[in-house]
Amino acid sequence: MDMNLSVSLLYAGLLTLLYIVLAIDIIRLRWRHRVGIGTGNAQDLEVAVRIHGNFSEYVPLSLLLLVLMDLTGASASLLHGLGALLFVARIGHALGLKLSIGTSWARTVGVLGTFITLMLQAGYMIGYFVGQVL
């Protein structure tokens, strides 16, 4: 078992930087609209809060699964593929919501990319478990 974790560390770092960018957007909008708590009546602030919140809801689980996959010795290609898909998906989701609070191609890419990543990770974990038990 490889304890290097270099691939999952890369995506943890990249996703952390994206998280900070999303948080800075909220701070900027709070200053602009002079809103300390909540979103006031500012729709752009409400959207930014939801983008950040959605990121916070999905990314930690996917990163945990990526680290666990790394610990089990998953191939670097698989880990890079999943990490890159998640990173691109989260950018797509954020851009899609910024462009339109309705449906958009970027938001669809973001949602599908995130769900595909999680489903593949879950499948890997279950397969790994079954392989260890049998």
UniProtKB/TrEMBL annotation:
InterPro entries: MAPEG-like_dom_sf, Membr-assoc_MAPEG. Keywords: Membrane, Transmembrane, Transmembrane helix. The keyword Transmembrane applies. The chain crosses the membrane at residues 63-88, 109-130. It comes from Pseudidiomarina maritima. It comes from the Bacteria. It is found in: Membrane. Signal peptide: none annotated. This is Glutathione S-transferase. GO terms for cellular component: membrane. PANTHER family: GLUTATHIONE S-TRANSFERASE-RELATED, PTHR35814. The keyword Membrane applies. Pfam families: MAPEG.
